[in-house]
Amino acid sequence: MESDKKWDLISIASIPLIMTLGNSMLIPVLPAIRTRLGITSLQVSLLITVYSAVAIVLIPVAGYLSDRYGRKAVIIPSLIATALGGLLSGLASWWMPHPYALILGGRVLQGIGAAGSAPIVLPLIGDIFKRESDVSQGLGIVETSNTFGKVLSPILGSFLASFIWFLPFLFIPIFCSISILMVAFLVKSPEKKEEPPEFKQFLKSVKFIFTEKGRWLYAIFAIGVICMFVIFGTLFYLSDELERLFNLKGVLKGAVLAIPLAALCLASFFTGKAIGKNKPLMKWLTFIGTVLLTAAVFGCGMIHSIPWIIALLCLAGIGMGLILPCLDAFITEGIQKEQRGTITSIYSSMRFIGVALGPPVASVLLGVSHHVMFYTISGACLLAALISLFAIHPHANDKPPGGSGKYEPSEGKGHDKLKIRIG
């Protein structure tokens, strides 16, 4: 990897880490928030749901704005919005007797910030690094940072809340301030060589991308949704069972929840280093990862021993660690720079859908039985394996399936046509 880009990468990797902390730190604290505020389980769950819902809607908008005005021009204001959201929620909790409405408003601000920060990281990596092997390695480090945030979140959130229940809110602005300074001063965005397209032409180019590359793009979107659904659905189950069967709470429960995520984190790191620009390897690692994920989750449905389920979820984490860096590399390297921000942002939005669906769907299925929950989730994993096998067909020396095109308007009768130029 280019040595002069080391601090750029470290600064960029801080963004998904902090965004993950900003959301997932609250998960182990939700029971305490519910008790302190005297609100219902539905009301406290909205603190997570509203964050994801706002991000899902705004992520594609942020992607377009980053394509048009630059990555840092979107990322830095978004990090500021996230910091202000945490500050609003924390101060309302501190100073007001009934702060729920303002806490919810702060979470809306954080969702806006999340939409314009973490999803823009993928195209920014593609912009900064020239060699495909460096892009793949950078994406692996970013995915590792994202996963490390998930590992750290339950432990750190529980630790901070053990002092003051709303302290996790107040630490979000501190984390964001560090990332803002790093991105502002250490990340050198490449200069735009061409004027970005007008919105109408931009929409035509995006439509053309989905027309030409829809098969593998939809495949990657679907696999990304399923992976996030599996992560958050199984962690919801594990969190509930640890408390119900073993009375594990606080930092200790967070540490146990972090074990499968640590396996995912390590696998993501080594996968990112290994795949380089080898597209066939990415395809087969994705397939192997989905098969491993399917087998591990199916195995969880056959047993009731929590230690064995944790061991199988570690195998599932390794499977996802093989999958996610490959998906990031495919989607970042397969899209021309002018549309990269929007397409990768749609991908990130799809992943947020998986995050939002995981806990409630797992809860409903678990109400039927332990077996139904795990067998249904393993069925989704099997679908991901079939999609990766039949819908992704890279070539050894080419860009990801469908090639990479640069879109230009050309004149035609009564309407604009699009043509594709390779290179």
TrEMBL record:
The yes or no answer to whether the keyword Cell membrane is present is yes
CDD domains per the UniProt record, alphabetical? MFS_YfmO_like (cd17474)
Q: Where is the composition biased (Basic and acidic residues)?
A: 408-423
Q: Which Pfam families match?
A: MFS_1
| Membrane topology according to the record | Multi-pass membrane protein
Give the UniProt keywords, A-Z: Cell membrane, Membrane, Transmembrane, Transmembrane helix, Transport
Q: Which InterPro entries match?
A: MFS, MFS_dom, MFS_Efflux_Transporters, MFS_trans_sf, Sugar_transporter_CS, Tet-R_TetA/multi-R_MdtG-like
Q: Which family does it belong to?
A: Belongs to the major facilitator superfamily. TCR/Tet family.
Q: What is this protein called?
A: MFS transporter
Give the organism the record lists: Paenibacillus gansuensis
